[in-house]
Design goal:
The chain is an alpha/beta fold and about 350 residues long. It is about 45% helix and about 15% strand. The strands form five sheets. Strands 3-2-4-5 form a four-stranded parallel beta sheet.
Length: about 350
């Protein structure tokens, strides 16, 4: 089942119409301290009396099994049955984890996504991927390692919520916008690469990314083939993010994916898919938007093994989604450790 995604600037209308069209035994809202302060007041008047509210800490550090335990305990003690609804009000962490908890609680209850960050609006809330991070002894963290595919009842996107974000959070989400253009719309890439990041038309940007992601995930809901192109920049990007996550130099998701897109665009150039001039345009534009991340040679040696846990891998091969050309991507490209190191060294030397 493909879910409806509504994009606009009226969460009040969207949510009212959804609740009027559906009947649930109980409603619960999951948020963090930021969305409770800045976003929950917008929807509070629309919710029936008796609606339950649970707040968890913000940030990727909260996307753990321990947090799931708290959410499941909350739903259990609140008496939510299988006719209840969970409303996930927040960014990618809230949407991923809330959807995962709803999908596994009593074998599944309905949930809806109300994404409030650019990252969640253009990427995380669309397509039905849900899950949490997983850590092993030694505190190595693997991104989205435990999860399921399951669709929300609907996704309601209000782009005015973007006004509540810090510039750094907004830039983080923009990495997925860049990715969508590079893998699926070269004309849009040519448009945004000439524009100042701060002057972009966000409703147009969000709708464009939603349309691309919906088209791809509808064709391949469980990532058996085509959907893998959405992972451009993510094989190395997730490894970089995972490496820095337990350190004091923690990166936001989009900041790590920016590293991954430059490194993987270089690998696409080395394999003859894109031209050196195109690589130069991609690298220079991304570095205009994002600060350079300092990565030492010794850290590259530790980052590369983390790609072994990438979910696209098969038969002990690390499989990449690379640009076939600007505006089109391919997938299942096997690369070895030396090539991956080469990609990160290219980024390192810019």
């Amino acid at each position: 089942m493909q879910h409806e995604v509504r994009v606009g600037n009226s969460i009040e209308t969207f949510l009212s119409e959804f609740l009027q069209a559906h009947r649930y035994s109980k409603l619960a809202v999951l948020c963090d301290e930021n969305t409770y302060q800045h976003c929950f007041p917008r929807i509070r008047p629309l919710l029936p009396s008796g609606t339950l509210l649970m707040q968890i800490p913000s940030g990727e550090e909260a996307k753990t099994l321990d947090s799931c335990q708290r959410i499941w305990e909350f739903m259990t003690h609140a008496g939510l049955d299988r006719k209840a609804l969970l409303i996930n009000l927040g960014g990618g962490v809230i949407g991923d984890m809330g959807g995962f908890c709803a999908s596994t609680y009593k074998r599944g209850i309905d949930f809806i996504q109300l994404p409030t960050t650019l990252l969640s609006q253009v990427d995380a809330s669309v397509g039905g991927k849900l899950g949490i991070d997983f850590s092993t002894p030694g505190n190595q963290i693997y991104k989205n390692h435990i999860g399921v595919f399951n669709q929300p009842q609907t996704v309601l996107i209000d782009t005015t919520f973007l006004q509540t974000l810090s510039p750094r959070e907004l830039r983080s989400g923009f990495a997925e916008v860049i990715k969508h253009c590079l893998i699926a719309d070269g004309e849009k890439w040519n448009q945004i690469k000439t524009q100042d990041f701060k002057s972009l038309d966000w409703p147009d940007i969000v709708q464009h990314s939603v349309d691309i992601k919906k088209q791809i995930t509808t064709a391949d809901p469980h990532e058996k083939g085509l959907r893998k192109i959405l992972n451009f920049g993510h094989t190395l990007g997730h490894a970089v993010e995972s490496f820095f996550l337990p350190t004091k130099r923690k990166l936001l998701h989009g900041e790590a994916i920016a590293v991954g897109m430059i490194s993987e665009a270089y690998l696409a150039m080395k394999l003859g898919y894109i031209q050196p001039e195109e690589l130069g345009e991609i690298s220079s534009y991304i570095l205009r938007v994002y600060d350079k991340v300092e990565i030492k040679d010794s850290e590259i040696k530790k980052i590369i093994p983390l790609t072994r846990q990438d979910k696209k891998n098969e038969n002990d091969l690390v499989l990449f989604s690379l640009l076939e050309k600007v505006g089109k991507a391919n997938f299942n490209i096997a690369l070895d450790d030396e090539q991956m190191e080469d990609g990160l060294h290219y980024y390192q030397c810019l």
